Amino acid sequence: MEVNVDDDQIEDLIDDAVQLYHERHGEGIDRVFLKHKLTKEERTAMVGVAQTTTVTDTFGGISSADYTEQANYLPLPDTIIGVNKIFKMDSSTLSAGMFNIKYQLFLNDLYYYGAIDLLNYSQTKSYLETIDYLLNPDVQIRFNKKNGRLYMDINLKELTEDHFLILDCYRVVDPESETAVYNDLWIKRYTTSLIKRQWGQNLIKFQGVKLPGGLEMNGRQLFDDAQRELEDHEQKLMTEYAMPPLDIIG
User: Fold this and answer.
1) Kindly report the CA angle at 51 between 60 and 69, in degrees rounded to 5?
2) Which of 103, 138, 197, 215 could in theory staple to 226 by disulfide, Cβ–Cβ 3.0 to 4.6 A?
């Protein structure tokens, strides 16, 4: 039996399967922490203007308006598909230095075992963390994997030269270096169904053509069967392999 699917089509289908694997499969990504040292040239570029947009109106009133966009972003590698947060850039007054509040708490209240109960200590620590969050909030970020830009909505004066940024992000598992990706059971089954659907699509144009012996190729049936298989694979991907969505309460 000859499968009428071109090699280029098979390569494209494998790429499609790997792309969906990266976007939805729990084992298609790794959580990584990237460290970046901000240079003087980068800080200067981030303070500048990325682009200016001019809007004109002929109806009346304001005839034109200019809008500028700041270049307060860092380009990230193409393998990064999501960013959780940037760890706090400044030192917390609650935990930095030798004579900080946490140090005083240990010095005065925990000088011997059993001085205070753990419930009271836990509530005090939570209260201090709340104060720290209000005084030093997390960095507000925006990220889109299509352009690979990580925007930081902060006061850029807080970024000093040779400042280190620690990024909490997700990176795709590269199948070129981690070849075990191609041996994943879901990848193999999904790719097989993709090739089967492509085969049926290629045979649809010969629908109704009689072969020797009275046989007739039924590309439509092959296409429909493969489509149902793909829907089953995608449903299984979302219910069994994908990372569960995290609910936001509050």
Assistant:
1) 80
2) 197
Instruction: Show pLDDT as tens, one digit a residue, over the chain (250 residues).
Output: 566 788 999 999 999 999 999 999 999 999 999 999 888 888 888 887 777 888 887 777 788 888 888 888 899 999 999 999 988 765 555 666 666 666 666 666 665 555 567 777 788 778 888 887 787 777 889 999 999 999 988 877 777 777 888 999 999 999 999 999 999 999 999 999 999 999 999 988 877 767 676 667 778 899 999 999 999 999 999 999 987 776 555 4
Cα 66 from Cα 51, distance rounded (Å): 10
Contact 45, 210 (CB under 8 A): no
Element (H, E) at 208: none
Query: Distance between CA atoms of 45 and 50, rounded to whole angstroms?
Result: 9
Which residues does 222 contact at the CB level (< 8 Å), separation at least 6?
196, 197, 199, 200, 203
58: enclosing H helix or E strand: none
Domain residue extents for the chain: 1-28+174-244
Is the Cβ–Cβ distance between 163 and 37 less than 8 Å?
A: yes
d(CA 90, CA 162): 14
